[in-house]
Design brief:
Shape of chain A: globular
Oligomer: heterodimer
Number of strands of chain A: 2
Helix content of chain B: over 70%
Distance between the termini of chain B: 62 Å
Order of helices and strands of chain A: EHHHHHHHHHHHHHE
Number of strands of chain B: 0
Mean pLDDT of chain B: 92
Largest sheet of chain A: 2 strands, antiparallel
CATH class of chain B: Mainly Alpha
CATH topology of chain B: ABC transporter involved in vitamin B12 uptake, BtuC
Low-confidence stretches of chain B: none
Structural class of chain B: mainly alpha
Low-confidence stretches of chain A: none
Number of helices of chain A: 13
Number of domains of chain B: 1
Structural class of chain A: mainly alpha
Radius of gyration of chain B: 20 Å
CATH topology of chain A: ABC transporter involved in vitamin B12 uptake, BtuC
Strand content of chain B: under 5%
Number of helices of chain B: 13
Largest interface: A-B, 43 and 42 residues
Largest sheet of chain B: none
Order of helices and strands of chain B: HHHHHHHHHHHHH
Mean pLDDT of chain A: 92
Strand order of the largest sheet of chain A: 1-2
Strand content of chain A: under 5%
Distance between the termini of chain A: 10 Å
CATH class of chain A: Mainly Alpha
Helix content of chain A: over 70%
CATH architecture of chain A: Orthogonal Bundle
């Protein structure tokens, strides 16, 4: 008979290897599925790798795709650390993008060194605001935040569509529901000529460091971890649980809002209602793969981005649906969940008595 | 006045019941899982998987009821997968649920694309037909509305009665309710907590999948990407609203269906003055309001989201 015994300490090697093994397991499983439907799995694996990291262009594309995932991954990691189940990063991303478009598309013109911070602040504030409602409902009326944040995703997306077809529609947009373009002063600069990679990745990496410091080196970070560990014990120890939850929510929402800013002001240049192919939900996978460790969010986001970009290339060459990428991402979440068991417990074989 | 007249049309009530049907299945499924102590956030994905698999089975040539069974079987498998993670291994129910939703949705979408790589207009099946129960028309307004429903809607009503009976009138129901409130006591009785929870997940998830299948096999006759559109999440909210009771679940779903049908009709009355998105937001806003209304006195199953590992306290 097998028994799980809690580990008092987890070897560092295991902590590092667990997500890697889980990710590989997910990829292997997905390739088995490919083979099962009769696709050349070996070639598919090659194409996937090539598409994700086979050239400078492929690498920059992967990093470009990783940018919003780092933000949403951090948003999930921060919130989940305090056991605030924010599943609404998708909506907060759109709120941030909408604010960026509102401020950045000509309403105000400032030199770039003021304009870019202003757009980022607007987007972060909008993202934070989008999560404030559900957090206050949880704190004041004990309404479950999982459901409200999920439902708000739909409400915010519809609100964005309404703005795109109404007051924020680009008069020069040939009738397409999109906002006017972000002015040049507000666009995040490109990092490499002819490539789409933009300064958003630098902001994202800066946030990784900031969030790491916040969680591990500040009082608020300590309070967040305490609330996440055991809310009633934290309350007993005199930690202001409600205030901590609200602050956590504001930070998490702001990070998700920045994902929207970087997509609008870094990549697309204007806002449409198909800005995000589920970055908010993939952010949860990124955070789990990173074991909610902010520093690990960056490599984890790059891995998921590599899968998404590589699968795009692969599906184009082999004529396989690009939903394959989503399948790999979901499998990665399920395998890392199982993997997390092995870092927390050790398996013991016990002879049946 | 026109806005009030709508309520007297049987076509309005027919639409309300039709809209409510997938929610009846979904809320019943969710409440069975939660009564046993497991929050099943896989519901959104299970709806998608049910919608695709039931429809696909019929498209490939089986009859409609076998299609419903196929959807239920797929749902049950996903429920058991959820259980492997949350019941047997005691992993986070939130994250597992999201994982199941992502997995089931992407697998269903991928499967659909594997079966139909190139089609642009979705293929159609011969869906369930309205039963045309003319004898019900003796009752004004609501009679004809009921008479126009398909067999799946009547199955939903039957499931409400059956669930209610099993939960409150049988030893099995007592065990399920107990396992969601105090699993240790059930374990002390010599019953298996794991088996009860896995069973509840399988049955509950099967019902959710049939709710999804209703959309592709009765409400419409084809599958569209994004057609589930948050219905699963609404069910989770309605389950709290229904305070985990099958009868109230039926009432909540019907109320929700009536509101939704009403706003669609108001939309045509409003004639383009109000942006259509406002109306499309209504179901989600209503769900949040429903949650807020009951939140203070919501009587969650006490062991909800608490894994039970035998021999540990």
């Amino acid at each position: 008979m097998i028994r799980f015994e809690p580990r008092s300490e987890t070897p560092v090697v295991l902590l590092v290897m667990m997500p890697v093994i889980s990710a590989c397991a997910a990829l292997a499983l997905a390739l088995v599925i490919l083979a099962f439907i009769g696709a050349p799995a070996e070639r598919a694996a090659g194409l996937l790798l090539q598409g994700a990291a086979g050239s400078v262009f492929a690498l920059t594309e992967t990093l470009t795709r990783a940018t919003p995932l780092i933000f949403t991954g951090l948003a999930a990691a921060v919130a989940f650390r305090a056991k605030l189940w924010n599943i609404g990063a998708e909506g907060q991303l759109y709120a941030g993008a909408l604010a960026a478009a509102a401020v950045g598309s000509g309403a105000i013109t400032l030199p770039p060194y003021l304009m870019i911070p202003l757009i980022c602040l607007a987007g972060a504030a909008a993202g934070a605001l989008a999560l404030l409602g559900p957090v206050l409902l949880k704190a004041r009326l004990s309404v479950d935040e999982v459901v409200t944040t999920l439902l708000f995703n739909f409400i915010i997306l519809l609100f964005v569509q309404m703005m795109l077809e109404g007051p924020m529609k680009d008069p020069m947009g040939m009738g397409w529901p999109q906002t006017a373009p972000i002015i040049d002063e507000g666009m995040l600069p490109k990092l490499i000529a002819q490539m789409r990679l933009h300064a958003g990745i630098l902001i994202a990496l800066g946030m990784v460091v900031l969030v790491h410091v916040l969680i591990n080196r500040t009082v608020l970070g300590f309070e967040m971890r305490a609330v996440g560990g055991n809310a009633s014990a934290a309350r007993f120890a005199g930690i202001p649980v409600t205030a901590t939850l609200v602050k956590t929510g504001l930070i998490s929402g702001a990070l998700a809002g920045l994902a929207g800013v970087s997509e609008v002001a870094g990549l697309k240049g204007y806002l449409t209602s198909d800005l995000s192919p589920g970055f908010g939900y993939s952010g949860i996978v990124v955070a789990m793969l990173a074991a909610l460790n902010p520093l690990a969010v960056a490599p984890s986001a790059i891995f998921i981005a590599g899968v998404l970009v590589g699968a795009d290339t692969m599906s184009r060459s082999l004529g396989i649906s690009s939903y394959f990428a989503d399948l790999v991402v979901s499998l990665a979440l399920l395998s890392v969940l199982i993997g997390s068991l092995f870092t927390r417990y050790r398996l013991r074989w016990i002879r049946a008595a | 006045m026109e806005a009030f007249d709508i309520l007297l049309q049987s076509s309005f009530w027919a639409a309300a019941i039709r809209i409510a049907t997938p929610f009846i299945f979904g809320v019943l499924g969710a409440l069975i899982c939660e009564r046993a102590g497991v929050l099943n956030l896989g519901i959104e994905g299970i709806f998608v998987a049910g919608a695709v698999s039931g429809w696909l089975a019929v498209y490939l040539g089986v009859d409609l009821w076998t299609g419903v069974l196929a959807a239920a079987a797929v749902g049950a498998c996903l429920g058991l997968l959820h259980g492997c993670f949350t019941v047997l291994l005691g992993l986070s129910q939130h994250v597992t649920g999201i994982g199941i939703t992502l997995f089931a949705t992407s697998a269903a979408y991928f499967g659909y694309r594997v079966a139909f790589p190139t089609v642009t207009s979705p293929p159609r099946i011969e869906a369930f037909k309205p039963l045309n129960l003319t004898f019900l028309e003796v009752a004004p307004i609501i009679g004809p509305a009921l008479g126009q429903q398909t067999a799946l809607t009547w199955l939903a009503f039957a499931c409400v009665i059956l669930t209610s009976f099993v939960l409150y009138r049988t030893p099995l129901g007592l065990a399920i309710r107990a396992v969601g409130d105090n699993p240790a006591s059930v374990d002390a009785q010599g019953l298996s907590v794991a088996a009860l929870r896995m069973g509840a997940l399988a049955v509950g998830s099967a019902l959710m999948a049939v709710g999804g299948a209703f959309l592709t096999m009765s409400a419409f006759n084809a599958f569209f990407f994004g057609m589930i559109n948050g219905r699963g999440w609404v069910c989770i909210a309605l389950t709290v609203f229904a305070s985990w009771r099958p009868g109230k679940a039926l009432l909540g779903a019907l109320l929700f269906g009536a509101f939704d049908a009403y706003q669609v009709r108001l939309q045509t009355l409003a004639g383009g003055v109000v942006p259509s998105q406002i109306f499309l937001m209504m179901p989600f806003i209503l769900s949040i309001i429903a949650l807020i209304l009951v939140a203070r006195k919501a009587d969650y199953p006490r062991a909800l989201m608490k894994p039970f590992i035998k021999g540990e306290r």
